[in-house]
Design goal:
It contains seven helices and twelve strands. It is an alpha/beta fold. The strands form three sheets. It has a seven-stranded mixed beta sheet. It is an enzyme of class 3 (hydrolase).
């Protein structure tokens, strides 16, 4: 298995190192044709506007959108989350191009500027159930986005209390307002924080299980099992008999 890591800018080397720790080769992706050699893709954290400009320069957006539509697993961290969102707010003047596919609305700098970066213990029941380890994860948030809304097919994997200084969630019910920071929708995984900057590899292991699941589904949908062959009409598979 080879997992591609978009290597335009940001923490792509850290993702490749984390993949190596879980026994998988990470491949740097900078050109559209390189996507053909990988079974999954990680879009790392970084400066999302800069990454978008570089992706546009290298004509990567059509190939990235096709990669997502094909159902191949894609994981976006921080800036990668913004790339995968169907809608992003709080962008710079003129906005930026998105890949889309993830039914959510993302606020680009929800948690504030670079000096407001922080670490927090995040409850991760789904990840802990599948990967073991402690029930929480030490999330590293660097000028991080937040997920404001999700569609019905999006599974929320983690959320954190919203900062009291943020007014984006005024309409939310309940005394404690929370913001979503990790989701999954089918073949797409997204985190607002940076698992690649920690020694905890459970998110990478979880993503690799998504890759394996997708590969198994693809192979089962394109080939008949021995049971299906034996239970089918034999005349469909027998060679014709020629009468003399």
């Amino acid at each position: 298995m080879a997992v591609g890591v978009l290597a335009l800018q940001g923490s792509f080397n850290e993702h490749i190192a984390a993949l190596k720790r879980v026994g998988v080769k990470g491949v740097q992706i900078r050109k559209p044709e390189q996507l053909q050699s990988v079974s999954a893709l990680i879009i790392p954290g970084g400066e999302s506007t800069t990454m978008a400009k570089l992706a546009e320069y290298h004509n990567l957006f059509p190939a990235l959108r096709e990669f997502v539509k094909m159902g191949k697993p894609v994981w976006g961290t921080c800036a990668g989350l913004i790339f995968l969102a169907e809608k992003a707010i709080g962008q710079k003047t003129g906005g930026q191009e998105l890949i889309g596919g993830l039914d959510c609305t993302v606020h680009r700098n929800f948690f504030g500027s670079q000096i407001q970066s922080f670490e927090a213990e995040i409850p991760i029941p789904e990840i802990a159930a599948k990967e073991g380890g402690p029930p929480s994860f030490r999330g590293v948030f660097i000028r991080a986005p937040g997920i404001l809304e999700v569609g019905p097919e999006v599974q929320v994997l983690a959320d954190v209390p919203a900062p009291s200084t943020v007014g984006s969630l005024e309409d939310n019910a309940g005394p404690e307002k929370k913001v979503i920071v990790a989701v999954r929708q089918g073949n797409l995984l997204a985190t607002a924080f940076h698992p690649e900057l920690t020694a905890d590899t459970r998110w990478h292991s979880y993503f690799l299980k998504m890759v394996n699941e997708t590969s198994e589904e693809a192979s089962s949908s394109t080939s008949l099992s021995s049971e299906e062959l034996s239970s089918s009409d034999p005349s469909k598979y027998d060679l014709p008999i020629f009468q003399q």
